Amino acid sequence: MKNKTLAGACLKVALMAITGLTAAVASQPTHAAYPERPVRLIVPFAPGGGTDMISRLLAEGMARELKQPVIVENKPGAGTTIGSDDVARARPDGYTLLMATFAHVVNPYLHPKLPYDTDKAFAAISMIGHSPSVLVVRPDSPLKSVKDLIEAAQAKPGTITYASQGVGTSAHLAGELLESLAKVDMSHVPYRGAGPALNDLLGGHVDMMFGTAAAVGPSLQAGTLRALGVTTTERSPALPNIPTIAESGVPDYVLDSWYGLYAPAGTPPDVIATLNAAAHKAANTDMFRQKVQSEGLVISTGTPQELDDYIKGEQARWKKVISSSKITLD
């Protein structure tokens, strides 16, 4: 009788152990095998631009690391707000990502009525890299340097004109930053896109423009444009002979065209870690580096915290510039 009682007790303990183990397994996160299906990478720009190109190359490399397709979806419009909102509203499961750029930082100050809170809607994965904008003029321009430009703008306030692809774009804010730091007054001429702006610069209708390395590179090589400076903190490897604007007499001048990878807020930390590792490996291959040379991209992958810290610094800087310039799009 005692043996039966003891056997029953042992069986009960064994069943409890099995039940507990089963419950523990069942309670494991469903993303344990992440990724189990294709991942969407939202690009908030139209196909064919620099961000689209960099995103597609990164997606190829990440797909190899994740062993699942990474599908690029272009969702342009409203200054990147449409594509960003798509990611902000997505399930935080690691299957919807965002390639963010300069607009990610400045939109909260340009669009006070954004459909999402930038600081709360996204989880950082990794910075991918930085590339310069280039201050360019025509070859026959009397402006031979940034110093010449500043002196001309000081002598005749409001007469120097600069083109951009629209109000609130990086090219526009590059000019506003120069005005603020150099204490000069210039005239902004917005266009509906970088192409028309560049055409009018080449046609002599405006004095200068801040363009991406990819956009102005062919004209620089052909000699139809001349570069005065680059907007990054250090000289660009793609344009090593062009000084930075900071070293040309405007200390603290910097405008990065950057690319950073995000997921919806609430994405599990282990999924973020998996995506960070995949992005790091994809962006640091020789193939990726060679193919993004035309963008002047300097690869600088890092931790999610490093991306967060960078963005906080940029937000403080650009909030001040936009506020003082009284720029708003709503």
TrEMBL record:
Q: Which domain of life is it from?
A: Bacteria
Which N-terminal residues, if any, form the signal peptide?
1-32
Instruction: Spell out the SUPFAM superfamilies in the cross-references.
Output: Periplasmic binding protein-like II (SSF53850)
Please name the Pfam families in this protein's record: TctC (PF03401)
Q: Which UniProt keywords apply?
A: Receptor, Signal
Q: Which InterPro entries match?
A: BUG (IPR005064), Bug_dom1 (IPR042100)
Transport as a keyword of this entry, yes or no, is no
Q: Which family does it belong to?
A: Belongs to the UPF0065 (bug) family.
Query: Could you tell me what this protein is called?
Result: Putative Bug-like extracytoplasmic solute binding receptor, TTT family
